[in-house]
């Protein structure tokens, strides 16, 4: 069984309490359960993680890229949070690891502050999803499974 990785960046541990008018009332535990159900339906194993530290995300991307190259993974859904708009390092990690990525945002970042309109991840991602709320995670996982 191949693995689908789901990596969540800074402040996503605050889902359900941080700006619920933007991000909704679901917690990160709810998102993990939703992803587990989607992966079970798709015949995939789930590796679900969150960190507020950029280096953790980079290390996980490298490892996921190795797993994908070994035929053990279908890729990763990455909600990098604010690192999306600031991290050349994440861009370089995805590109260097040759990891298949779907960039995900819970909110529609293009309807928010101007600084959120630019993504360093989009150029190295297979697809970008935003504005579907936490339901976007299951959609993104389906995209990974369909393209595997």
TrEMBL record:
Q: How is the subunit organization of this protein annotated in UniProt?
A: Homododecamer.
What exactly does this protein do?
Catalyzes a trans-dehydration via an enolate intermediate.
Q: Which residues bind substrate?
A: 79, 85, 92, 106-107, 116
Residues under site feature: Transition state stabilizer:
18
Concerning Pfam families, the annotation shows:
DHquinase_II
Instruction: Name the InterPro entries for this protein.
Output: DHquinase_II (IPR001874), DHquinase_II_sf (IPR036441)
The gene from which this protein is expressed is: aroQ
Q: What is this protein called?
A: 3-dehydroquinate dehydratase
Q: Which organism is it from?
A: Comamonas serinivorans
Which pathway, per its entry? Answer: Metabolic intermediate biosynthesis; chorismate biosynthesis; chorismate from D-erythrose 4-phosphate and phosphoenolpyruvate: step 3/7
């Amino acid at each position: 069984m191949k693995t689908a990785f789901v990596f969540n960046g800074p402040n996503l541990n605050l889902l359900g309490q941080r700006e619920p008018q933007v991000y909704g009332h679901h917690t990160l535990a709810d998102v993990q359960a939703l992803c587990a159900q989607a992966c079970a339906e798709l015949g995939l194993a789930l590796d679900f993680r969150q960190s507020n530290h950029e280096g953790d995300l980079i290390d996980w991307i490298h490892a996921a890229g190795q797993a994908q190259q070994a035929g053990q993974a279908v890729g990763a859904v990455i909600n990098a949070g604010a690192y999306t708009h600031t991290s050349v390092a994440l861009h370089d990690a995805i590109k260097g690891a040759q990891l298949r990525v779907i960039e995900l945002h819970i909110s529609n970042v293009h309807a928010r502050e101007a600084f959120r309109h630019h993504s360093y991840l989009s150029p190295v991602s297979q697809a970008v999803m935003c504005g579907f709320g936490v339901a976007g995670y299951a959609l993104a996982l389906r995209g990974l499974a369909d393209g595997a």
